[in-house]
Amino acid sequence: MQEVFATALPTASEEFPSLLGRLLGVLRELEAEILEMRIFSAAGTDRGSGEALRERFGRVDWPVTYVYGDRREGGEIAGVQVHAVSGVSVVPLRLGSSIVGRMFEDEYARYCVLGDLHADDRSRSREAQARETFEALEKGLALAGMDLTCVVRTWFFIKDILEWYSDFNAVRTETYAASGMFNRYVPASTGIGGGNPGDLAVVATALAMQAKGDDIAVSEVASPLQCPARDYGSSFSRAAEISSPEHRSVLVSGTASIDPNGSTMHIGDVQAQIARTLEVVDAILQSRGMGFADVTRGNAYFKHPGDFELLNAHCSRYGLPTERIVVSHADICRADLLFEIELDAAKSERSRGRGSESRHAKDAAPVESVR
Fold first, then answer.
1. Mean pLDDT computed over 170-194
2. For a 10 Å CB count at each end of the chain, is N or C smaller?
3. Mind listing the domains of the chain with CATH numbers?
4. pTM for the complete prediction?
């Protein structure tokens, strides 16, 4: 079994169908089957995208999550990310008329990948929609024979996040408490601003795992340079590690320029916030024997689209592969935060420190697949 993370970044003036074609070429080369897809774009660019997906891929029986930001200074499409797998059977998970996820298994565990989870009625209050989104998450997990305690990682794309993030956190905390999650493991997570085609309050995706034995485990990873997020009311872990005899994966939550006491650092200075954020993430990775060269997938979020290009110099300094990072516009969870990043990294236990294996599309276009 091979797990594949593919990040497709548009070339200059490239249209969506062309980008999808390059992505499809890489997945075919790896004989990989899609589990979940995320499309980061400007508002309204989903029109016609369903048809383009069907033209390239045929039947789309995996969840597609759209995340809107302002791309006026960088084109309409920020990037497309795919989580895929090869060498195993994949089972679609359908909730009503919608495909909400897919599941697969290896010798160590069963896995469930869910996407595009949301409430059905946007006229309801934002808090009610958040509760419905968690209910959709639980229903999707139930289709795979799992529950909330199996969740390893979540992503919440929250419309108008600055207006109600504390209310969202209250709903999340209430849900987790009712499920007994605070007595076990609290998932790593990203909570970031972002619109969606349905104009809904929040859209979620998630990764869950159910171990078959003691050979695989999920554990919380602390941030050496920050306090736990729960200290200031956010119910998520700074990072999570999945360890098995074959590999280790570290999933770093959305991370920003926050000091050990939970306060924002470098207010008004985006360069300093980027530097501090990457310092924090580097410390997390180093604490687990990894580095930026082991990154398989990432997302960088800027409050101001005009700041996008500032990331390149910092990535060069740390050796962070920019071809694996989608850079997009989003409000961060605090008004004084200008930048946030999330990363996944992996290392084979058989590699003796060699890092992740990567393959590029044959035409050298910016599509990166890492296994």
1. 95
2. N
3. 2-370 (3.30.1330.40)
4. 0.93
